[in-house]
Amino acid sequence: HCVLENNQVSRCRARMNKDGVLYSRVYGKPCAVHVDPIEKKPFFHFLPGTTAFSIATAGCVLSCKFCQNWQISQARPEDTDTYDLPPDKVLSQAVSNGCRSIAYTYTEPTVFYEYMYDTAIIARKNKVRNVMHSCGYINEKPLRELSKYMDAADIDLKGFTEDFYSRICSGSLKPVLNSLAVLKDEGVWLEITNLVIPTLNDDMKKISEMCRWIQKNLGPDVPIHFSRFFPHYKLKNLPPTPLETLTEARNAAMGAGLKFVYIGNIRHEGESTFCPKCKRVIVERIGYFVKQNNIENDKCRFCGTSISGVWT
User: How far from each other are the two terminal CA atoms of the chain, in whole angstroms?
Assistant: First the structure.
């Protein structure tokens, strides 16, 4: 929690206490607006082959040393170029661009919670889906309220030790695990992303422990994306993640009982979805492009096995 004095700005830079009232400094003022493939979020079990109208404001609750979008996540709102885009305009632009969903993404959507919440309500009324990519750093009550209108969430599980979260992200692991459990309990479609960083969170014992926790607490059908790290921001001294490490992580996850394990930021067969029963490729991907989709009526076209996800 932030405890703010009068006229003080929050750590995330997105809120301010003014005479005892907490104001959003970013409502309706996104600094990033794009039409993206849903696979870029990444969501692999949610409306494959469709596009998401994607928005973000400045600010973040964490300070990850490896942040790929640090120019806006670590910026003050007044230091970014913004669009005038209230919730109704977000919806109209999503519809006019043929997007099946609106994605709250890039920085940290919980810092623009009120903006996201209001947009999600009108999107739901107009049959446009809502998805977010978040670090999961949010209290239970507002998350449950948001979950009423959120169709899918991809949560960054950045590591599996408190030490990593403290040293590298200026945060804590426990709130993220709590959020994952809440989202699962609320019935929001859930996927997890883990950026594998050499020497910092690539210990296979910890990765296996993380995957066992996911299997036990969230279930075997929750997809996990192991994403390749590239030198960035404050971690330019580290090398890119070796493919061998990502492959080992994928094998560890499948060994822990997870059915849908992906490798990202590198060309690999782990970009595609395999049927857990017949082992055939059911969604073939090359990067963000879906080459073929063999899921019919939520089932594998080849053997009839039900495949968890939101396919239509």
Answer: 38
Beta bridge partners of 22: 17
**Where in the sequence is the domain holding 284, given as residue range(s)?**
275-306
Statement: the pTM of the whole predicted model exceeds 0.90: yes
Longest Cα–Cα distance in the chain: 63
Q: How does pLDDT run across 28-75, given as a tens digit for each residue?
A: 999 999 999 999 999 999 999 999 999 999 999 999 999 999 999 999
Domain harbouring 67, CATH code: 3.20.20.70
Residues 211 and 290 in one domain: no
Residue with tokens 């999961």: 136
Q: Per residue in 226-282, pLDDT tens?
A: 999 999 999 999 999 999 999 999 999 999 999 999 999 999 999 999 999 999 999
User: Which residues does residue 55 pair with via DSSP β-bridges, in sequence order?
Assistant: 33, 104
Pairing of strands 101-104, 129-134: parallel
Q: Which of 63, 65, 64, 62 is nearest to 237 (CA)?
A: 65
Looking at the 3D structure of the chain, how many domains does it have?
A: 2
**Residue type, position 64, single letter:** C
Identify whether 62 is part of a domain: yes
DSSP character for 246? H
H or E, element range at 73: helix 70-73
